[in-house]
């Protein structure tokens, strides 16, 4: 009899504890407009799962994002503060982290919702795209990494989802390559042609060293371009699990399905076999996605 009473008290305490400390999932999607899901009136794209969530919950009709760019909007999402206050806003044309070796990131002094939840005993995980920096002084300090901002588990892309990471999908650096490579090469070609003509007409005596220097300059520019195109993917497009690189360069084949399965596995690891009775731990799962041209990318 005592055992039954003790068990009933334990179950009642666990259920009241669960009610006051709910488990929850946070979803964030880049490049998703309010008119894209079907629940907001889109008749072209099919989003049945999102529509079902809207039907069973609350559908908000007014919201202002902190920024239209990945890095600053994610900083605001994590901290609840304007991104300029954490140094995550920029007036430059780029405005986001493009390279894994980019300096800066979300300061460790910032208080993220993951830190607050972890202090309350929650297990936290982030699945998807981080895009708020990785390292400070070397490649192993991970001062800006999700695990340094309150998350117990991370699986995803530390930088961003660029067309350059997918072979044959083009490049976001087209304008920069034109300005830094093609235009200088055109100028060098015009200079070489002009010097050849002038020398052939006997108007000016041009030393051979001038031609050699211009050719070497053109070769150096082309070499730098080839190195950049060759090494960009392996150095900047990779998948991480916690602090370990698991795929380099990243493959987007079934990436959404792989990350979805990992997110579900994280929940299963923390939920008791007796669902609804004795949860092992309270948890928060943040899923950060980017809507690509060919589908959903986490």
Annotation keywords:
single chain, 298 residues, alpha/beta, 7-stranded mixed sheet, 7 helices, 7 strands, 39% helix, elongated, disordered N terminus, disordered C terminus
Q: How many DSSP helices? A: 7
Strand content: 5-15%
Structural class: alpha/beta
Mean pLDDT: 83
What is the general shape?
elongated
Radius of gyration: 26 Å
Q: Report the uncertain regions.
A: 2-11, 273-280, 293-298
User: Helical proportion?
Assistant: 25-40%
Q: Please outline the major beta sheet.
A: 7 strands, mixed
In total, how many beta strands? 7
From N to C, what is the helix and strand string?
Answer: HEHHHEEHHEEHEE
What is the end-to-end distance? Answer: 52 Å
How would you describe this structure to a colleague?
- With 298 residues, this protein is α/β, with parallel strands linked by helices.
- Helices cover 39% and strands 13% of the residues.
- The protein contains 7 helices and 7 strands.
- Strands 1, 2, 3, 4, 5, 6 and 7 form a 7-stranded mixed sheet that branches.
- The longest helix is centred in the last third of the chain and has 29 residues, at 208-236.
- It is elongated, with a radius of gyration of 26 Å.
